[in-house]
Design a protein that fits this description.
The protein has 371 residues and is of the alpha/beta class. It has two domains: 16-38 and 282-370, Aspartate Aminotransferase, domain 1; 48-278, Aspartate Aminotransferase, domain 2 (3-Layer(aba) Sandwich), CATH 3.40.640. It is 39% helix and 15% strand. It has 13 helices and 13 strands. The protein has helices at residues 19-24, 47-53, 66-79, 95-106, 126-134, 154-164, 184-197, 232-235, 250-259, 267-278, 282-303, 323-332, 356-370; strands at residues 2-3, 33-34, 89-92, 117-122, 138-143, 168-172, 200-204, 226-231, 244-247, 315-319, 335-336, 338-339, 348-352. The strands form three sheets. The chain has an eight-stranded mixed sheet, sandwiched between helices. Strands 10-13-12 form a three-stranded antiparallel sheet. The chain has a two-stranded parallel ribbon with strand order 2-11. Helix 4 packs parallel to helix 5 (126-134). The protein binds pyridoxal-5'-phosphate (PLP). Pyridoxal-5'-phosphate (PLP) binds next to helix 4. Pyridoxal-5'-phosphate is lined by residues 94-96, 125, 172, 176, 204, 206, 231, 233, 242, 244.
């Protein structure tokens, strides 16, 4: 088990195209295809723009997001047999806000050291560590980097949780950036460990909508202390608006809601979320588009002799050798990819799945570099 050093920078590295970097290269944002963020490749559902134009910009949004929570509850009842009432749903300004609310609710610099610890299955989304660091927490991580297929030793994870008794345990499923997708029994092992030690398992399902054969994780809520965190930003390509939600017990939901600033989910995001959920066929179409592009890209890159580990999510890891060098060369061609050095994977880039034509352009550019 590794303890993370407190000398690390407080803020994590993220994908996404940064205007300052583009300016330095003489590029404009509209000249760049962004493969560094992984969101739905088919753009927002049709009704979203119309819904946005109807929003009264002079009115405060509903701080409790009532209509949106009702729509999320209905959506969940269509995809799961587990009923989820609105009292178990919290909407956030992106799922990232919910991750920070969790850290504030369950960790604190004023707690005794032994009661201010978090456990993270790494490599993974940097915001977990970032949020816990802001609380001055001791962070342990179980690394999957040197394991076959980047799959963690979950028995070891459960034993470590039993020993360290962390207040929060972070698991991303499917995992960013490795694309590893754990099954019900594997995740249950961690729920049980959290149950015994009094911790809370944070199951980040930001990419679940793109998994070809998902299982119903809502059933975990009956098994033990778990919160599911989901991203409508990613599901519906609402990246500029920021929208996410969590599903947990009423008690956990209330605890987080108390810490959330009023109106943090603005009126445009709420309206967009409602319009997106009204398009009930959208997620199937997005998943199909991901699969088509992903199959093409992984086959084409493998043809180039590049190792592409299997991924259950809407992104691929690609072993290129010198990730920073490849990322620099690709951005100069107007193609932004995620250099995975900050994940501890300096030989890999991560490529978010975009429409097929964009993936063809990327494959051509990478063929040029692989020569
Ligand atoms: C695993 C994971 N969770 C959450 C997020 C943040 O999503 P949101 O836009 O909903 O804040 C990201 C963004 O990259 C992510 O990779």
């Amino acid at each position: 088990m590794d303890k993370l050093e407190n000398s690390q920078p407080l803020r994590p590295t993220h994908g996404g195209v940064k205007p300052a970097e583009l300016r330095a290269l003489g590029l404009k944002p509209e000249d760049v295809l962004d493969f560094s963020a992984s969101v739905s490749p088919i753009g927002p559902p049709e009704g979203v723009r119309e819904a946005l134009s109807q929003v009264d910009l002079a009115a405060y949004p509903d701080p409790q997001c009532l209509l949106l929570r009702e729509a999320i509850s209905n959506h969940l009842s269509r995809v799961s047999s587990e009923p989820v009432g609105t009292e178990k749903i919290l909407v956030g300004n992106g799922s990232t806000e919910i991750i920070h609310l969790l850290a504030r609710a369950y960790l604190s610099p004023s707690r005794p050291r032994s009661d201010n610890t978090a456990f993270i299955l790494t490599p993974t989304y940097g915001e977990y560590e970032g949020a816990c660091r802001l609380m001055g927490s001791t962070i342990s991580c179980l690394d999957g980097l040197d394991r076959p297929g980047f799959r963690w030793d979950l028995e070891l994870a459960a034993r470590s949780i039993a020993q360290e008794k962390p207040s929060l345990i972070f698991l991303c499923n499917p995992n960013n950036p490795t694309g590893v997708f754990l099954n019900h029994d594997e995740v249950s092992l961690l729920v049980q460990a959290a149950d015994v030690t009094g911790g809370l398992l944070v199951l980040d399902e930001a990419y679940l909508s793109f998994v070809e054969e998902p299982w119903d994780s809502l059933s975990l809520l009956r098994q033990g202390p778990v919160i599911l965190v989901r991203s409508m930003t990613k599901d519906y390509g609402l990246t500029a608006l920021r929208l996410g939600y969590s599903v947990a017990s009423e008690e956990v939901t209330q605890r987080l809601g108390t810490l959330q600033p009023d109106w943090s989910v603005n009126g445009l995001s709420q309206a967009a979320g409602l319009a997106a959920l009204a398009d009930t066929g959208y997620l199937d179409r997005a998943r199909q588009a991901v699969n088509e592009s992903k199959n093409f890209l992984s086959a084409r890159l493998a043809d180039l002799g590049l190792f592409v580990p299997p991924s259950a999510a809407n992104f691929l890891l690609v072993k290129v050798g010198d990730a920073t060098g490849w990322s620099d060369k690709l951005i100069r061609k107007g193609l932004a990819v995620r250099d995975c050095t900050s994940f501890g994977l300096p030989k890999y880039i991560r490529v978010g799945i975009r429409p097929l034509a964009d993936c063809q352009r990327l494959a051509e550019a990478m063929a040029g570099l692989a020569d």
